[in-house]
Write a structure and sequence with these properties.
The complex is a heterodimer of chains A (187) and B (762). Chain A contains 10 helices and no strands. In chain A, helix 4 packs across helix 6, helix 6 packs across helix 9 and helix 7 crosses helix 8. The two termini of chain A are 25 Å apart. With 762 residues, chain B is mainly alpha-helical. In chain B, the strands form 2 sheets. In chain B, strands 1-2 form a two-stranded antiparallel ribbon. A two-stranded parallel sheet of chain B has the order 3-4. Chain B is globular and about 115 Å long. The relative contact order of chain B is 0.09. The chains are: A mainly alpha (187), B mainly alpha (762). At the A-B interface, helix 1, helix 2, helix 5, helix 6 and helix 7 of A face helix 9, helix 10, helix 11, helix 12 and helix 16 of B. Chain A: One of its GO terms (biological process) is integrin-mediated signaling pathway.
């Protein structure tokens, strides 16, 4: 045990600890999970901060994500270039935000970005349709889907501009106290 | 009118227009004064040959720098773009970085004066990438150290404080690491959450939380009263048969399990060794346990209230919550599919509810409903009272019955009857749901909860009344031990019944549901009923700790076994819940129930015991005293004879024992509560006003945009040839685009509005 080379330098680990909600042990555990996804790609020595990205297909095969209807959006939001391929930093960020220690505002911000499919910083009707379709997996008919989107916009759009801004979204979340416990991936 | 933010939005759209901006040097001057990111500027210059784009391609520009423009107002923090190269390097970039520099420096400036703990908290909650956060941290630390170098005379103190806080943080981290490694059942909870979702998980989390209470109580009682008693334990001469595990009597009567075994003497080992006053130790240990449980419950309840009861009277029967609160903890494939199906059903129900929202009931129907409710309440209260009376009479006659029948197993009759009542009557209450109809389904859950908790608390109440008023005053020898044994038997019988219910009842129900009546299907986990059973058991444990100090240990083992039994039964016999169950609100209600009838009842009973009852004369640590509390009185008396402890006596006589002090304290607390209540009311009014303001601003925006469209159309009709050629190129696709994307009219209007902005400046 004593001769195992360190994965991170002391400063790196401290930086990770200060920038995420994880303890040292959890960070190491997450690193090994990341490494297990692509053992040939991810080096065991991160002291030189290598620029390694695990492709999206491997990320979405993780048991925590593989059946999640939004796994593609989650990977896109947290990846560096929005294409779903994640570096270790992105990986840690993702699970830090989805952990139970993250505050509501932070989670609401990222949930907003996940549901914003076209990345225009507003959740418009099209985004809502995409969300509802992913949630119900084709069980609802097209009219029901558009009815649902209309109702959501009715309820949540405070300034009546036909789409939800981050503030509108946060206002909805405020009235849904379950959000903190449901927007949570345990790893 | 338009706020600054909206003006900023428009200007940003301007600079994103490739061909327009470049031909208007004047617009370049506007830009540095408003929010602009240097990156998009470079983007503009690099793609000027793209020509006209429509708004769809705005979002298709996958340049991460443009997407990182947080130009929509965020409540989190200042809208800062992709930054945090250190401030020096910012200066070397293209002009117009001054604003970005300002924003970055504003953030860093706000971070510097914070303590390191707050700074880390602030950095962690920033919605930025890891790299940005790292740089932020580096820069903030560097600036902080620069500042602290400057202030030389404070450096000593500041460095001291810094190192102390750093050490504290490190120790807290390692402690939390230790705790999380010790944390029980993480993997099991993950599997449960993955298959059944957050709502069923909340039951198991509650069980784990109660287990922590019991572990803590056990450790305290074990260290302070059980171990000292072990050191002077006398030999146990009673015979041991296996039945004692159920009755708690017999062999166990003379063990550390019960009050009667404890000595009232001062334990002293060897001459001149430390003396240990058992009386004081007993009363203080139980007192400390209860006080710490009290504060722990209070803080948990307050935390849950703060997070989950933000505005209870805004009941949103809304559909937005269904859409946005997808349960990310569900990871099992079948569970996800089932959840999607259930969500669709719920959405359909919600849609139809919204359509039927305005159906009013006729007077006749209202009367029928009201009478059904009334009848149900009368029947449920009647049943509860009847059960209480039956239990009381049984308990009363039990003692005579026991004296005539010498069978040691006969003491189990009362616990058996109580457990049967607890098993049958809640299910009977659930059947009322067939008769009663509620407007909102959550009313049904709450009313069922109220009825069940009323039943359970009245049974406990009547038993305590019997014990404290009849048994304690009957002059029986060692009545405390007797009560302890009764409570032990109740607890154990309850545990046996739960096991039987899980092993037999739930299995049978599954076999019936899958083989015999396949239409029934698998059952769903009844969270409310199970949580109430936990609350009932915990109340018994708290009451019984005074009479039977080993009870927390027994409850610990019980909870441990229950976890595994419920887990196995859940995996095999249940299906995931079909309706959304408001887990957070229900948890708040459960913790409140644990606090309000349950724990406060325990405190009342303890208070009555200690202040009003006479301890038995020849067993236990308080033997011979007129009241339990006299142990404290005599201690204070002995202390008052010693000059170095007079402050304790003073505190006791003038603060704890004085009526005036409590009166003033109550008055102050009431005044503070009133003030906070008024502040809350004021804030509610403020929220309403701000909400109206948002709506009004939205209306203003739409009005202005429509007016602009009209003006633009008029101008176009008036002067079709006065526009520069590039603009005409741009106008064509824009107007095409408007026809195509009618639904997304707002961004297009913004686009055209931005064009309009350029025009007067041209």
């Amino acid at each position: 045990m004593g001769n195992k080379p360190a994965v991170f330098t002391h400063e790196q680990l401290e930086a990770y600890q200060d920038c995420t909600f994880f303890t040292r042990k959890e960070i190491m555990r997450l690193f090994y999970r990341y490494q297990d996804l692509a053992p040939q790609l991810v080096p065991l020595d991160y002291t030189s901060s290598p620029d390694v990205k695990v492709p999206y297909e491997l990320i979405s095969s993780m048991p925590e994500l593989k059946d999640n209807p939004f796994r593609q959006r989650i990977a896109q939001v947290f990846s560096e270039d929005g294409d779903g391929h994640m570096t270790l930093d992105n990986f840690l960020d993702m699970f830090s935000v989805m952990s139970e220690m993250a505050p509501r505002d932070l989670k609401a911000y990222y949930a907003f970005k996940i549901y914003d499919f076209n990345d225009d910083d507003y959740i418009c009707a099209w985004d809502l349709e995409q969300t509802v379709t992913k949630l119900t997996r084709g069980e609802l008919s097209a009219e029901e889907v558009s009815l649902v989107c209309e109702k959501v916009l009715d309820e949540a759009d405070a300034d009546h501009d036909g789409r939800l801004s981050l503030d509108d979204f946060q206002h909805v979340i405020l009235r849904a106290p379950d959000f903190l416990s449901t927007f949570h991936i345990r790893i | 009118m338009l706020s600054d933010d909206q003006v900023n939005e428009i200007i940003i759209e301007v600079e994103n227009v490739p061909s327009g901006v470049q031909s208007h040097p004047s617009s370049n001057q506007i830009v540095p004064e408003k929010t602009l990111v240097n990156s998009s500027f470079s983007m503009v210059s690099s793609i000027s040959d793209i020509g006209v784009t429509d708004s769809q391609s705005f979002s298709d520009w996958n340049d991460k720098k443009s997407r990182r423009l947080l130009w929509f107002p965020t409540s989190l923090n200042d809208s800062i773009s992709q930054i945090l190269h250190s401030p020096e390097s910012l200066g070397t970039d293209i002009p117009c970085t001054s604003h970005e520099n300002m924003q970055g420096q504003k953030l860093i400036a706000s971070l510097i004066p914070m303590t390191s703990r707050d700074r880390i908290k602030a950095i962690r909650s920033q919605p930025r990438t890891m790299e940005e956060k790292r740089n932020l941290r580096k820069v903030a630390d560097r600036e902080k150290s620069k500042l602290s170098h400057g202030i030389f005379e404070l450096s000593c103190c500041a460095q001291c404080l810094n190192s102390i806080s750093l050490a504290y943080r490190r120790s807290k981290n390692s402690l939390s690491e230790l705790l999380s490694s010790v944390s029980l059942w993480q993997k099991t909870l993950k599997v449960i959450g993955g298959k059944f979702g957050t709502s069923v998980l909340s039951y198991f989390n509650f069980l784990r939380w109660l287990l922590k209470f019991n572990i803590f109580s056990f450790i305290v009682t074990f260290s302070f009263i059980i171990i000292p008693q072990f050191t002077i334990a006398e030999k146990n001469t009673l015979p041991f048969t296996g039945l004692e595990f159920f009755t708690g009597a017999g062999y166990f009567r003379d063990t550390v399990m019960y009050y009667g075994f404890y000595t009232n003497s001062t334990i002293q080992h060897g001459k001149g060794g430390a003396s240990y006053n058992m009386q004081l130790a007993y009363i203080f240990t139980i007192g400390v346990c209860l006080i710490i449980c009290f504060f722990s419950l209070l803080f948990s309840m307050a935390r849950y209230f703060r997070n989950n009861f933000i505005n209870p009277h805004i009941y949103s029967r809304g559909i937005a919550k269904l859409i946005f609160c997808w349960d990310f903890t569900v990871t099992h494939e079948k569970a996800v599919k089932l959840k999607q199906k259930n969500l669709s059903t719920e959405i359909r129900e919600n849609l139809s509810e919204i359509r039927q929202e305005n159906v009013k009931l006729t007077l006749n129907q209202q009367l029928i409903r009201f009478s059904a409710h009334l009848a149900a309440w009368v029947v449920s209260t009647g049943v509860a009272i009847a059960c209480c009376v039956a239990v009381y009479y049984l308990a009363d006659n039990n003692s005579q019955f026991l004296q005539s029948h010498r069978n040691p197993g006969a003491v189990l009759l009362l616990p058996f009857v109580v457990s049967c009542i607890n098993l049958a009557v809640p299910r009977f209450y659930s059947m009322f749901g067939l008769v009663e109809r509620y407007e909102m389904p959550r009313h049904e859950v709450y009313i069922l909860l109220i009825r069940n908790i009323f039943l359970k608390i009245s049974i406990i109440g009547i038993l305590c009344y019997y014990w404290l008023n009849i048994v304690a005053l009957a002059g029986e020898e060692c009545w405390e031990t007797f009560i302890g044994q009764e409570i032990y038997r109740l607890l154990l019988m309850d545990f046996v019944f739960s096991l039987a219910d899980s092993f037999l009842g739930e299995f049978l129900r599954r076999i019936i549901g899958t083989r015999v009546f396949t239409s029934l299907g698998l059952q769903e986990f009844d969270i409310a009923r199970n949580v109430l059973e936990l609350i009932y058991a915990q109340t018994l444990v708290w009451i019984g700790t005074f009479f039977c100090p080993l009870l927390p240990f027994i409850q610990m083992i019980t909870l441990f076994i229950m976890f595994y039994v419920k887990n196995i039964s859940l995996m095999m016999n249940f299906q995931p819940p079909s309706k959304a169950w408001r887990a957070s609100q229900m948890m708040t209600v459960f913790i409140f129930l644990l606090f309000f009838p349950s724990f406060t009842g325990v405190l009342c009973i303890q208070a009555i015991t200690i202040w009003r009852l006479k301890p038995s004369a020849d067993c236990g640590p308080f033997q011979g005293l007129p009241f339990f509390i006299h142990a404290i009185y005599s201690w204070i008396d002995t202390l008052s004879k010693r000059p170095s402890y007079l402050w304790v006596v003073w505190i006791y006589r003038n603060l704890i024992g004085s009526v005036h002090f409590f009166f003033i304290l109550t008055l102050i607390v009431l005044i503070i509560t009133y003030l906070y209540w008024q502040i809350t009311e004021g804030r509610k009014i403020m929220i309403r006003l701000l909400h109206e303001q948002i709506i009004n601003e939205g209306k203003d925006k739409m009005f202005l945009i429509e007016k602009l469209i009209k003006l633009q159309e008029m101008e176009k009709r008036a002067n079709p040839s006065s526009l520069p050629p590039e603009r005409r190129n741009m106008e064509q696709p824009v107007s095409l685009h408007v026809r195509e994307h009618d639904a997304a009219r707002a961004p297009d209007l913004r686009f055209r509005r931005s064009v309009q902005e350029d025009n007067p400046r041209a």
